[in-house]
Amino acid sequence: MNQITFTLGDVLQTLLIIAGILALVALALVLFKVVKTLKKVNQILEDNEKDIQRIVSDIPGITHNVSEITNEANQLVQSVGPEVQSIVGSAKHMVSKVETTTSQVTDTVGLVTDSVADTALNLKHNVTSAQDYLVFITEIADLVRSWIRR
Q1: Residue 148 dihedral angles phi and psi, to the nearest 5°
Q2: Closest residue by Cα to residue 148 from 8, 25, 14
Q3: Is 150 helix (H, G, I), strand (E, B) or coil?
Q4: Which terminus, N or C, of the chain has the lesser number of Cβ atoms within 10 Å?
Q5: Is residue 72 over pLDDT 80?
Q6: At how many degrees (to 10) do helices 85-149 and 8-80 cross?
Q7: 99, 19, 15, 97: which is closest to 59 by C-alpha?
Q8: What is the C-alpha separation between 148 and 83, in angstroms, rounded?
Q9: What is the DSSP letter of 83?
Q10: What is the pTM of this model?
């Protein structure tokens, strides 16, 4: 009667090969999702590039206009006299709010710009990590091939 004998090493090697194949499949799925996400992010950046550039380029002009308005309001207060101080106080308060809003818009645009730059950098690092995984998978595949050839 013929008997087939499996050693513990054979069983473990077979399990390792199966685990490696499953890991490769899972990694391939992850890589496909990363590529899909990168395409979406790239498309969003391309679609909004002109708007982002326009907003960033408009901020210095807005800030300059707010400064001019503040200077003109100060001159008007001095020329009209103390009877209009309450009206001017209200105008200063509004200009202050506009300056604060402009500052907040500037900060927000800065944060958006930083976030976009960080996202691009993270995507670059993720692509590098994905390349490292591919090298690792290639090495595992080479090991599996060499084991099969024995």
Answers
A1: -65, -35
A2: 14
A3: coil
A4: N
A5: yes
A6: 170
A7: 99
A8: 97
A9: G
A10: 0.34
Check residue 126 and give its pLDDT: 61
Residue 9 corresponds to which tokens in the numbers above? 């090493």
Whether residue 116 contacts residue 45, with contact meaning beta carbons closer than 8 Å, is answered with yes
**Count of all residues that appear for the chain in the document:** 150
Residue 148 CA to residue 144 CA, distance in Å, equals 6
Residue 5's pLDDT band (cuts 50, 70, 90): confident
d(CA 80, CA 47): 50
Residue 125 amino acid letter = H
Out of 32-36, 54-58, 111-115, pick the least confident: 111-115
Amino acid letter, 73: A
Please tell me the distance from the alpha carbon of residue 62 to that of residue 70, in angstroms, as a whole number: 12
SS (H, E, C) 27-81: HHHHHHHHHHHHHHHHHHHHHHHHHHHHHHHHHHHHHHHHHHHHHHHHHHHHHHC
Side chain identity, residue 16: L
State yes or no: pLDDT of 90 exceeds 70.
yes
Q: What angle do CA 118, 122, 125 make, to 5 degrees?
A: 140
Spell out the residues 6+ positions from residue 106 whose beta carbon is closer than 8 angstroms to its own.
Answer: 59, 63
